Amino acid sequence: MRLFVLLLACLFLVVGSAFADILVHKDGRRIEGQVVRRTASEVVFKTKFATLTFPVKDVLEIVEQKTREQEHAERLAAAQTAEDFYRLALWCEEHKFRRRTREYHERALELDPDHAGANVALGRVQYKGVWMTPAERDARQLAEQEAEMRERGLVQYEGRWVTPEERAKLERGLVEHQGRWVTLAEAMRLKGLVEFEGGWIPAVEGYARRDLAAMSKLAGIELGVAFGTDVMVAGDADVPALEAIAQRADRARRWFGEKWSVEPGLELFGGRLAELYAFVDDALYDRTIAHTVERSRWIPEGWGAAVAKRYGYTWVDPVRLSGATLRNRPDSHLDGTCFHNFGHLMAISIGYDGRNLPAWYEEGVACLIESVAHGQNTVFCRATSATGLGSSSGSKHRPVFDDKAMRDDGWRARLAAELAQGGIEPFDALARREFHELALIDIATSRAILEWLLSREPGALAKFHAVLRHHAPAQPARVILAGRDRHACYDAAFGAAVGMNHRRADAEWRRWFRAEGLAGGAATER
Questions:
Q1: CA-angle at 403, arms to 521 and 340, nearest 5°
Q2: What's the pTM value of the predicted model, to 2 decimals?
Q3: Which positions ≥6 away from 220 have C-beta within 8 Å?
Q4: Omega before 399 cis (within 30°)?
Q5: Residues 6 or more apart in contact with residue 118 via CB below 8 angstroms
Q6: What are the tens digits of pLDDT across the range 157-214?
Q7: Assign residue 322 a region: left if phi > 0, alpha if psi is -120 to 50, beta otherwise?
Q8: Residues facing residue 278 across a β-bridge
């Protein structure tokens, strides 16, 4: 208590020099200070900066008031109870005597340890009816928890409470997974993870990264990588470019899933990420082909040498994989090849059972996917000759399309003109062609037929595809050679999709294209 008496005495000493009066000037100013002298003609007024003299006629009034120090001293002198000191602390906080605030809260608690306001103001909490600091509460809770756990027969292991039997298993390196005690590695695998470079990552990413490591080793450099929802895109291009390919591939996958009635997810790709490799350096592309050749059971002799001369390739067994190279083309063509190949992979993957789909259909799907992802078509799987004629191609006097028309959508007008002149062969001629027999006119026709199917009722393409897959010939054939069997296949496919046999469907898509498809089909929905 002597401390407060001394403090009060000091405060009264200060009051003598404090400014307590307010001089209100007729010009509106309010000046704080003390009256030194007042006469009939003037007022001498001392501020903390100077002593000023004002004519009486210029002074509206002089207001006598207490200074903060005076009011503080009076409140302190009057404080007796815990509530008084608590209220004084609140007043100090409000009037910027903050250095005194904590002191008065503590004084309140000296007088009443259970004063709620002062306890809360000092950051204390109530636990089981007792006020304490949060640290004290936490320590008490921990002690109580430990006592309860030990009473239940539990012991601690690495910061958690377990039974003695569980601790023995944990000390042997076992972990609990779905009610079973297994090794950590087995638990990770059961969770869908695989070990990669000293850590555990999702299995689909781990498998893809292992393939990437093998590809990097063959290429002789560390390849960049980007992951989409359903794809891994890797290569010697800049990572932002790879990321852009992955994002657009995911967009194409969503569009494909909607149009072909395929659920989202990796089931389409056999539970793995599709792998798209894009190379600016042709030599790296050539070296990495060996990775695909070595892994597959189905690649025919000479396949690796053949694709080394081309812009890219696709393979589906044991993993959906594509390789693409720039080969002296514009950069956009490398992206286009990735998307085109991705279209092949998706078409092949629906119901994949090792058998091949018709060349015209698979190429048409690939062109649609490239258009959706890329906004144009830059690559075509076709014959190398101008006409693209082969042993089963039919007439040798066929229209010749140029690459530019196919890329900039000019093929629509060109195809419409040929349809008007009767220059497009019956559908059965297209259905008999192998990849090496396809010409650009065939690819344009294929795309038009698929766009027509897309314009029909939802699910038409899914039904069409299911019949093609059901009737697919045995490896390595793509074409059903027997005319009766081929006609039966396409009658069933068009029948399931649009309720027509193949001849009527052939006539209908032509009519539709001249009337509606010329302006841009369903594949323009991007």
A1: 60
A2: 0.67
A3: 284, 287
A4: no
A5: 82, 85, 86, 89, 105, 106, 108, 109, 112
A6: 988 899 999 999 999 989 888 889 998 888 888 887 888 878 888 888 999 999 999 9
A7: beta
A8: 235, 324
